[in-house]
Design brief:
Helices cover 47% and strands 11% of the residues. With 192 residues, the protein is mostly helical. The protein has one domain. It binds zinc ion. Zinc ion (ZN) binds next to loops.
């Protein structure tokens, strides 16, 4: 996937002194890369949603019918909250090194603070926070670039890609007045 400024601008930290709040870095080959502040923002958005999914009462979890691509318009039934939580954990385990994944489990999944983690992992504070930053950046990138179902944007995972405003109306609109050489054409949406 290609990272564009229109996407990174909204996610970048305004005070970031690396990307100056634009969210993109220009590499040696003129290729653009997302700034680390953007990757960490993506991770935090996914982590917030993960916590939301696992903390919600189980009886509130809904079964949804998700459309599959193709002409037959068939769908598949699923529990999105559970799927999201499982993807979040499995992708993290696959992406991180063994030590990073231990830190991830203690700090993010079990909620241990830095003191407890440092004691348990025999690390100093500086190395611990460096590792946490590295974990957030690695996972932020993977959550966004994952195919076919990226974990970010979170809304697209749960509700599918946003449709263009015009495309969903085009086949349903009919003019209520015959087009003429001058004046304004008024369109209405057919209710059928
Ligand atoms: Zn930045």
């Amino acid at each position: 996937m290609e990272w564009t400024r229109s996407e990174t601008l909204a996610l970048a930290a305004p005070a970031c002194n690396i990307c100056l709040g634009l969210g993109l870095r220009i590499g040696r080959s003129e290729a653009t890369h997302p700034c680390n502040c953007v990757l960490r923002a993506i991770f935090r958005a996914c982590f917030d949603r993960f916590r939301d999914c696992v903390s919600r009462e189980k009886y509130m979890s809904r079964v949804t019918l998700d459309p599959l691509p193709g002409k037959e318009r068939r769908g598949t039934w699923g529990r999105k909250d559970e799927e999201y939580s499982a993807d979040f954990c499995l992708v993290s385990k696959r992406t991180l090194t063994e030590l990073e994944h231990r830190i991830f489990r203690y700090h993010f999944l079990m909620g241990a603070d830095w003191k407890l983690c440092c004691h348990r992992l025999q690390m100093d504070r500086g190395n611990f926070f460096h590792a946490v930053y590295r974990i957030e950046q690695k996972l932020g990138r993977v959550f966004r670039e994952l195919e076919p179902y990226a974990l970010f944007p979170v809304n697209e995972y749960f509700h599918g890609p946003a449709k263009g405003v015009s495309s969903c109306l085009e086949e349903h609109v009919v003019p209520i007045r015959r087009p003429c050489g001058h004046g304004i054409h008024v369109f209405t949406q057919r209710t059928a």
